[in-house]
């Protein structure tokens, strides 16, 4: 067995000191790096603007939880409607993230954009994941399993809104299209009548310029007097 007293502790002091200094340096570097990274992320421009629907919902909850006789009681129907509008806005933002993810990834690989834009996009993805989880939790608090269907309903509302906007846009263009077609039809009729008139004039001119051929007189009929 190795006797502890026979170990050269003085000789092992230097390696242990080196390991301790190395670990301390790595921990210090990691701490500084995380703080600097957090500061950079905090200074990044947000991918989306303020979430007004979420702010309205939270304001209604604060009014509902406030104490005092002057504080109005917010009906659950109003809170549900506010939460649904919040979910609809989340669907809009989620679609924007899905559409922009592939484009941002391709631009980042080509070096066309910097890491700041990609970090801002990743932070927006994380925030959206937390937002969706929060909406599901709030929905389940109003009705069991509502969190599993609220986004499906929000998606249908978004699709119906887009369809209605498309129809309104088409309807707004009907008058313009009709006016254009009436003007175009008048131009076609004018050009057609002009072509007919030119064709009639050309035919009349050809008849006027036709050459009349005289019939020759027979020699036997013409006799001189003796």
Summarize this structure briefly.
With 226 residues, the chain is mainly α. The chain contains five helices and no strands.
Q: Would you report the number of β strands?
A: 0
Classify the helix fraction into a percent range: over 70%
Approximate shape: elongated
Which percent range describes the beta-strand content? under 5%
Largest sheet features: none
Report Rg: 44 Å
Distance between the termini: 181 Å
Q: Helical region count?
A: 5
Q: What letter string, H or E per element, gives the SSE order?
A: HHHHH
Region (Disordered): 193-226
Protein name: Translocation protein sec66
Transmembrane segments: 12-33
GO biological process, one term: post-translational protein targeting to membrane, translocation
How would you summarize the topology of this molecule?
Layout: H1 9-43, H2 52-65, H3 76-110, H4 115-142, H5 150-208
Descriptive report:
The chain crosses the membrane at residues 12-33. InterPro entries: Sec66. The protein has 226 residues and is mostly helical. Helices cover 76% and strands 0% of the residues. It is built from five helices and no strands. The chain has helices at 9-43, 52-65, 76-110, 115-142, 150-208. It is elongated, with a radius of gyration of 44 Å. Mean pLDDT is 78; it is low at 221-226.
Key structural traits:
226 residues, mainly alpha, 5 helices, 76% helix, 0% strand, disordered C terminus
